[in-house]
Design goal:
Strand content of chain A: under 5%
Number of helices of chain C: 13
CATH architecture of the largest domain in chain C: Orthogonal Bundle
Largest sheet of chain C: none
Structural class of chain A: mainly alpha
Helix content of chain C: over 70%
CATH architecture of chain A: Orthogonal Bundle
Low-confidence stretches of chain C: 272-280
Structural class of chain C: mainly alpha
Radius of gyration of chain C: 24 Å
Number of helices of chain A: 13
Number of strands of chain C: 0
Oligomer: heterotrimer
Chains: A mainly alpha, B alpha/beta, C mainly alpha
């Protein structure tokens, strides 16, 4: 009797939870899940230029083809993408954290002005700012780096033409594009820390550094961890920066820098073979899911708190 | 209070959001064409047709669509949101034709109308025996030179050009610049040597011996041409830091805005070491009609015809440096007195090669550009050719 | 004693100001570069990085006189604000449930949402197109609002969940004992406490929509539906005749509303926890 009542209450309670999450699940089902499902469906068909509207189901042929093309270039682009993700995450986290902590120094006037100015990279559409970097900074003829190189007596300096030069240039631009978001997140998290914790630390005689490491960091980690994880996803699937800096039509620099997405783009997507490129998209998705599932699982588990 | 304010805002948003779905007009016919071209020029075309067809109640509208090739593919089967016809280059015709989204142009223009164009321009829009393009003008790359900067006589050989470039670089300047890594812009060298990007049987020509010769010769120019990217070379030229540049009619308005006293020379006037001349790609720009627009056949035919007059062609040549596809306009004095048009006509007559319009050309740009880049960087040409030929073969295979 | 303390404080904040001025300058180099170009009457990229040639305001005037900036601005505002509402409200509800309730399938859902968000959205263009076409939503703002909301909601949800979870459960428990129902707790306790998080998340979503151009230029084909970002994209993609000064002016102009919103919102972003006066 008692047990049933409790079960009943539990069920009602659960149902109300489902009510709260229904709207977002609907949105996600429509805009995220359906397209993924559709992509998987297309990957099993022969939809290409020659069967644009009259495509039919052909099984896993596209996957076999995609795997048969996974050569050393694909593997090296995968390796580079992993390196790219790690390098970006380290730099983005460090830069954002330092800036956020300094912005939150107690009694510091002007934080709003600096914060707003530091937001600027984010306020400009990314295709515009990447173009500005390409022309204004990296261009060997009239960019800042070219000017500096000439001032130092060297010839014009085309950083985007070499593999590692292009890598570091892309890294710099990507960190520049990404830090405002993480900085804002961390700043928000720091702001939400209960002030009494700081007071307690002060009473213990802790200085700035000790407060930062013993109070601020442990408090913000659980808050910002999901967004950092999502930032990592974003770096992994980053396309614009590398593409617009080194591969855009009319601006190919020959650096040979390829992440898996740019690689897939130049090898498969230009073919107009939607069946094959959908198979490759699906494989890339699986790959991301596989690489990140450990982190996602841990995050989901901790989400219980 | 604050919470109440949200309600009208939300209602307003919902109303404006709904208002976004405007529907088709009623009554007189409105025709829409898409383009990714000079807006002033396209609006001129639309208004020329609208004016001519005022009595018939036909209005023609030009809508600019950036990335038009992808958009046509997406909207190619969508009569309610797609255009009735579009303006574009002939080399994309093959792909659209294979997709089955284009109507044959012969249903929209009779034999006399099509016969009034230069044969080469109509042929450029033919794919697998069907004509799809209603041609308006042709274009090729030319050598643009700054009359105030260019020193001495214009060379008549490519070796002369190379020597000129090397001398100018030594002086700390730039001679003529080109996007030497780019397939389209390096094509004059490749074609001039008898090489090819892709042939009619859809075989890539990267590993062809003559292609390699052309690429190797093209690579000798690279060190004299800065980084060879579009932004760099156009700005160097427009700001008076380079004496010349390889470009086409699309670049003229920028040159005029920059106030440069510019001369144009046909690439057919430069002899290569092998005795041939530089031979750039020829592009034909014109209209293609969507298959689903059949219900408006009559109106579209009339609109197309209204834009294929000597008067329109002359205006296009005069104001936008377009080389007419219309035969009757080709020797109108006002047209031939335009230096750029004259040089383009010369190039087409002498050595220009139509850009291949087979769908396979669409996947050639990347491997071919990669090949050129590798050669220009000084990599072993045979190895590069083998590698990128394989890439190209793979890319073509991937289309099916 | 007091004096030394003041001096040390002045030194501390002084050096902090110096540091931030330097950091801002470095971070803003590309922006200052664009600013200089936007005030130039003649394109002169080769003239040095911060050079202004023939100073003029014409480029800014041009974006209003020759481009349809008014319409674009209106469209961007409508889309971005509507998207923020359609994204943040469902996300806040879900975040509340995930942060404070336990129910069957919770962990699986969390895991799935995280992983789903990893799918590169650019790859789903064709699928979204098919969806919108079959629902006859192409060329409507609703389509774009839905697409934007769907693609931002997971991100907004995780943002909010982190904050909601950091609100001590003792606060809700106290409210429950006081007889508050769940919706009451959400609206009267949790949401006010999480105000900074909601504002931050709204701004993030707002910026994402404001600067999005790919979907906007693909799904809205009418010229009167251009947004600032898609209009500007069309302008620059016509790079056959790129006018750098006007392009720079337009780029900076479209970033301005974002910065203004951000600046104005800052004062609402102070901690909800202390503002709510809840201390344990």
């Amino acid at each position: 009797m008692k047990g049933t009542a409790r079960n009943e209450r539990k069920r009602r309670y659960e149902n109300s939870a489902y009510f709260y999450v229904a709207a977002i699940l609907l949105l996600v089902a429509l805009i995220v899940v359906f397209p993924i499902g559709y992509t998987v469906y297309i990957s099993l068909t022969n939809m290409n230029l020659y069967h644009w509207f009259d495509f039919e189901f052909i099984g896993i042929g596209n996957y076999i083809r995609a795997f048969s093309q996974a050569n050393s270039e694909f593997l090296s682009s995968l390796g580079l993408t992993i390196l790219w993700t790690i390098a970006n995450m380290v730099l983005i986290t460090l830069v954002s954290l330092v800036l956020a902590v300094l912005l939150n120094v107690k009694g510091f006037k002007g934080r709003n002005v600096y914060k707003t100015l530091l937001m600027f990279p984010w306020a400009v559409p990314s295709y515009v700012s990447i173009l500005l970097w390409r022309i204004g900074i990296f261009n060997g003829e009239f960019g800042l780096l070219g000017d500096i190189a000439r001032a130092l007596g060297s010839d014009s300096f085309y950083i985007l033409q070499s593999y590692w030069g292009a890598f570091f240039a892309s890294l710099l631009v990507n960190v520049w594009l990404s830090y405002p978001f993480t900085m804002t997140m961390m700043d928000g998290a720091l702001q939400s820390i209960d002030q009494s914790l700081y007071e307690a630390a002060r009473l213990d005689g802790a200085g700035f550094w000790r407060t930062t490491f013993n109070v601020s960091l442990p408090e913000i980690v659980p808050i910002v961890a999901p967004s950092l994880l999502m930032t990592a996803f974003m770096q992994f699937k980053q396309f614009d920066v590398v593409y617009l800096l080194t591969l855009q039509k009319g601006a190919q620099t020959g650096a040979g820098l390829q992440t898996i997405i740019t690689y897939a783009h130049t090898t498969a997507f230009e073919s107009n073979n939607y069946g094959l490129s959908s198979a490759i998209s699906t494989i890339i998705f699986m790959l991301i899911a596989l690489l990140f599932s450990r982190f996602a699982y841990r995050e989901a588990k901790e989400g219980r708190n | 209070m604050k919470r109440l304010a949200i309600i009208p805002i939300a209602a307003f948003l919902a109303a404006t959001a709904l208002a976004g779905c405007t529907t088709e007009q009623g009554g007189p016919t409105t025709l829409t064409f898409w383009h990714d071209n000079d807006e002033a020029m396209m609006n001129y075309l639309a208004s020329a047709a609208t004016d001519a067809l005022k009595d018939e109640g036909i209005t023609v509208e030009a809508v600019k669509k950036s990335g038009i090739q992808d958009q046509i593919k997406l909207y190619g089967n969508d009569s309610s949101n797609g255009p009735d016809f579009f303006f574009g280059a002939h080399d994309a015709i093959g792909a659209y034709a294979e997709m089955g989204i284009l109507a044959g142009i012969e249903g929209y223009a009779d034999a006399t109308t099509l016969g009034s164009f230069l044969d080469s321009t109509v042929d450029a829009g033919e794919y697998k025996g069907t004509k799809y393009l209603f041609p308006l003008y042709a274009e090729t790359n030319l050598l643009f030179y700054n009359k105030d900067l260019w020193k001495g006589e214009m060379p008549t050989t490519t070796d002369g050009l190379l020597a000129y470039n090397e001398a100018r670089v030594k002086e700390g300047g730039y001679g003529f610049l080109n996007q030497y890594n780019d397939t389209y812009n390096a094509a004059p060298w490749i074609n001039g040597y008898g090489g090819f990007v892709i042939n009619e049987e859809a075989t890539p020509g990267i590993s062809d011996a003559k292609t390699k010769e052309g690429a190797a010769y093209n690579a000798r120019f690279a060190p004299t041409m800065s980084d060879g990217t579009y932004d760099t070379i156009t700005n160097l030229f427009l700001e008076g830091k380079a004496d010349g540049i390889l470009a086409g009619p699309w670049f003229v308005s920028s040159v005029k805005d920059a106030g440069i006293d510019c001369g144009y020379v046909s690439l057919s006037r430069f002899e290569l070491p092998n005795g041939e001349v530089l031979s750039p790609y020829e592009g034909v720009q014109g209209f293609a009609v969507m298959k689903y627009a059949e219900g408006k056949k009559d109106a579209i035919s009339k609109a197309l015809k209204a834009m294929a007059t000597v008067e329109v062609a002359t205006d296009l040549a005069k104001n936008y440096n377009c080389t007419p596809a219309l035969e009757a306009a080709s020797d109108v004095a006002e047209v031939t007195s335009n230096e750029m048009v004259k040089e383009t006509q010369y190039t087409i007559a002498e050595s220009a090669v139509p850009t291949p319009n087979i769908p396979e050309m669409g996947v050639m740009w990347t491997p071919f550009t990669n090949f050129l880049t590798a050669v220009n960087k000084g990599e072993n040409i045979d190895e590069a050719a083998t590698k990128y030929q394989a890439d190209a073969v793979q890319a073509i295979e991937n289309m099916h | 004693m007091e004096l030394r303390k003041t001096a040390r404080k002045a030194l501390k904040f002084g050096s902090l100001h110096l540091l931030f001025i330097a950091v801002c300058f470095i971070a803003l180099v590309p922006i200052i570069y664009a600013l200089a170009i936007s005030f130039s009457g003649t394109t002169n990229l080769t003239g040095g990085i911060f050079a202004i040639t023939d100073f003029t305001f014409d480029n800014y005037l041009h974006i209003f006189t020759e481009l349809d900036f008014g319409t674009w601005l209106g469209n961007s505002l409508i889309l971005s604000i509507a998207t923020v509402l359609v994204t943040v409200i469902p996300s806040a509800f879900a975040a509340y449930a995930f942060a404070t309730m336990s129910f069957r399938g919770k962990r699986v859902l969390l895991f799935l949402l995280l992983i789903l968000n990893a799918f590169p959205q650019v790859l789903t263009m064709t699928a979204l197109f098919a969806l919108l076409r079959n629902t006859h939503l192409l060329n409507t703002r609703i389509a774009l609002i839905l697409v934007y909301s769907g693609s931002n909601s997971i991100f907004a949800f995780f943002n909010l969940k982190g904050y909601f979870a950091s609100i001590p459960s003792s606060i809700s428990e106290a409210a429950t004992i006081d007889g508050a129902t769940r919706p009451e707790i959400l609206f009267k306790v949790v949401l006010p406490l999480a105000r900074p998080a909601i504002i931050v998340t709204s701004i993030l979503v707002f910026i994402n929509c404001w600067n999005e151009y790919l979907f906007a230029s693909t799904f809205l084909t009418g010229k009167d539906l251009y947004t600032l970002a898609s209009g500007l994209y069309a302008l620059q993609s016509n790079n056959l005749a790129r006018n750098w000064p006007q392009f720079a002016a337009a780029s900076l102009f479209i970033s301005l509303p974002v910065l203004i919103v951000f600046f104005l919102m800052q004062r609402y972003m102070v901690s909800g926890l202390t503002a709510g006066g809840v201390k344990e």
